[in-house]
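Write out the 3D structure for:
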Amino acid sequence: MTRLNRKKLAMTAYRLFGAETSPYSVKVRSFLRYKGVDFEWVGRSKANEDEFAAMAKVPTVPLLVSPNRPANQDSTSILATVEADHAEPSAVPDDAACAVLALLLEDYADEWLNKLMFFNRWGQKPDRELAGDRTMEQLLDGDLPRAKKKTRDQIVKRMRDRLPLVGVEKKNEKTLKPSFERFFTLLNAHLEKSLFLFGGRPSAADFALAGQVAQLLMDPTPGDWLRANAPFVTAWSEFMEAPKAGGPFVALAELEETLLPLFRDEVAVTYLPWAKANMAAAEAKEERVSLKVDGKAYEQVTQHYAARAFKSVTAAVKGADSAEGLQGFLEKAGAAEIFA
């Protein structure tokens, strides 16, 4: 290998520690594939635990080791920095209003849709047992213990204990279940008319949503529902494993017919009220957040990372208040007052 080639490899090579069972890992992996950068996928397991722990600040994946940046475990930040380093093919809509809406949908996926995924995976049978088996095989590199059921059950218990931390409490299920079906019915209608969320190429929102959908398709209960009721979502999710741009981004006006219902009937009904209330609770240093979501009582532990993420999204929305069509779209979606 020549010195020039070694230098080129050093500038472009990435290592991504992740797991097939992690929506955020899948989100980042698909993004790197779209960008066409060289990277090594390192499935996290006991075999590389010491190496992972030496670089990780928290015990969760993904962890991206970059040639020219510090190791990063925040999927939203990872996408933004890789976008800055590799501008083409672009994942930022040309329409300023769409660019902001993409940030909103990325946060919806990371912070609200993740609740729906977590509930489907760990809150019900047989999904949680099958998920426990997959997780055990991943963590142990397929070197399964003799007491497989006991180990599987320990994993399931640990994950079920985490349900309240993401807002999956019994009293919230009557809000989460209809949110799941409503969102994917609306997303399916949109993707029936658009290759990606904002036109002919994927945005950060596509990668974030697809990471969660990939998990839902692994689990029998939500997977069967999606395949039966949201075929365009299912096909889009498969394409998002290694997407290619099929055309340019398009203007908001061309998307509004099917994008507006997605925001008006779901995003502005569930995620936005919760995100704003959670941010307020975090700022007030309250341990729990309580509000009405979709007309029903909703309460959970305050999520501080989600609060910081939504604060950033709010700043982006306010910073783009002059973007053509944005304010009108938010008003029609019933979301303008959230950012007032």
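The longest strand covers residues 288-293.
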